[in-house]
Amino acid sequence: SLGKANGKMRNNVFVGALNIPEDIELGDYVYFEVELPDNGLSGESDHIPAWPLVEVTNMKWSAKEARRGDCLKLTADVSEVPDETEAMVTIYEYDQDGIHDLIAEIPAMVKEGKIELLWDYEYYEDTDELSTEEELQKYGNSYNPPEYFFTIK
Asked: Distance between CA atoms of 32 and 43, rounded to whole angstroms?
């Protein structure tokens, strides 16, 4: 029992909020037992599966650096979800301005509390726009290779 919830019933839909506790476990359900004394009605809503907060940890690339054509393994530990849960791994190229470039979205599956997938690295930008070493030296800079990170949903 999560307690009482106040809200409004509109066209057979409850409009309101109910806080789900953090100690909820896989397999638990949330539902309403409704009493509408002004209408002489009572009932029970559909049972909705409730999930605990998903924890994704230990996210890793198989290599610190890669060259075109290299195959990288991306791994992460995932808890509080059942096996065979679908996930989406999104790879971004890091930009200092915070507007990171989307590189790839790869579907994945949680198996035994882990996500593992392979990604073939390709450089996606136009290499004609890269400065030569001579051009970089003129201004005291050096080439900064692209940096990537990934997220999991």
From this structure: 8
* pTM, to two decimals: 0.67
pLDDT band at 142 (very low <50, low <70, confident <90, very high): low
> DSSP letter string over the chain?
------EEEETTEEEE--PPPTT--TT-EE--EEEETTTTEEEE---EE--PPPEEEEEEES-S---TT-EEEEEEEEESS-TT-EEEEEEEE--TTS-PEEEEEEEEE-BTTEEEEEEE----S-GGGSPPHHHHHHTT-------EEEEE-
Pairwise pLDDT comparison (12 vs 72), residue with the higher score: 72
Distance CA 54, CA 112 (A): 14
Strands 41-44 and 13-16, by their bridges, are unpaired
- Could you give the strand order of the β-sheet that contains 101-109, starting from the edge strand earlier in sequence? 101-109, 86-93, 148-152
Among 78, 50, 74, 52, which Cα is nearest to 63's?
A: 74
Per-residue pLDDT at 60 exceeds 90: yes
pLDDT digits over 23-32, tens only?
Answer: 888 788 888 7
